[in-house]
Amino acid sequence: MGSESGKEERVGRRGNLITASSDENLKEIFHQIRISKTPAVINYGAPWCQVCSQILPTFFQLSNKFQKLSFVYANIDECPETTQHIRYTPTFHFFRDGERVDEMFGAGEERLHDRLWLHS
After folding, report:
1. What is the pLDDT of residue 16?
2. Alpha carbon of residue 74 to chain centroid
3. Residue 50 CB partners (closer than 8 Å, separation 6+)
4. Which positions are annotated as active-site residues?
5. How many other β-carbons are positioned within 10 Å of the β-carbon of residue 92?
6. Distances, alpha carbon 1 to alpha carbons 5, 29, 66, 73, in Å
7. CA-to-CA separations, 94 to 5, 29, 34, 54, 85, in angstroms, rounded
8. Beta carbons of 73 and 25 less than 8 angstroms apart
9. Which stretches within the chain are classed as H helix?
10. 3-state secondary structure of 36
11. How buried is 85 (Cβ within 10 angstroms: 0-12 exposed, 13-18 middle, 19+ buried)?
């Protein structure tokens, strides 16, 4: 079961948005961000977080608008090891050249749009 196709099934893709469904997935995503040096944003959230659920459709819409950025959603409950440093949901981490360069706590469509514009 350790085949590439098995891995791909566990990483959800919707357009330009990738969903990490396990610590293993998220570690691989971090690795890809580091080696590809592609600008990226990771949205750390949880299904029980009402604010996270409210901003997620906007996050998806913005992933189609900002094509130069890779968009990742990480459910902190499904990725407990790799997200143990996350203390507030939603938290957004922005990456450039393989390094985290910025973060944003909380939601707000306009704030998120402006931050994405800044990093794209």
Report:
1. 81
2. 5
3. none
4. 49, 52
5. 22
6. 9, 20, 35, 24
7. 28, 13, 12, 20, 15
8. no
9. 4-10, 23-36, 50-65, 109-119
10. helix
11. exposed
Q: Which residues sit opposite 105 in a β-bridge?
A: 91
pTM of the predicted protein model: 0.87
- Return the amino acid letter for 65: K
- What are the tokens at 61? 């819409």
CA distance 93 to 42: 5
Q: How far apart are CA 7 and CA 17, in angstroms?
A: 16
CA distance 113 to 34: 24
Is 70 exceeded by the pLDDT of residue 50? yes
- Quick check: 29 pLDDT over 60? yes
What does the alpha-carbon distance between residue 24 and residue 111 come to, in Å, rounded to a whole number?
Answer: 30
CA 2, CA 33: separation in Å to the nearest integer? 22
Read off the pLDDT of residues 86-103 as tens digits, 9 standing for 90 and up.
999 999 999 999 999 999
Neighbour count for residue 84 (Cβ, 10 Å): 10
Amino acid at the residue 24:
E
60 within 8 A of 17, measured Cβ to Cβ: yes
Question: Which residue has 């790799």 as its token pair?
Answer: 82
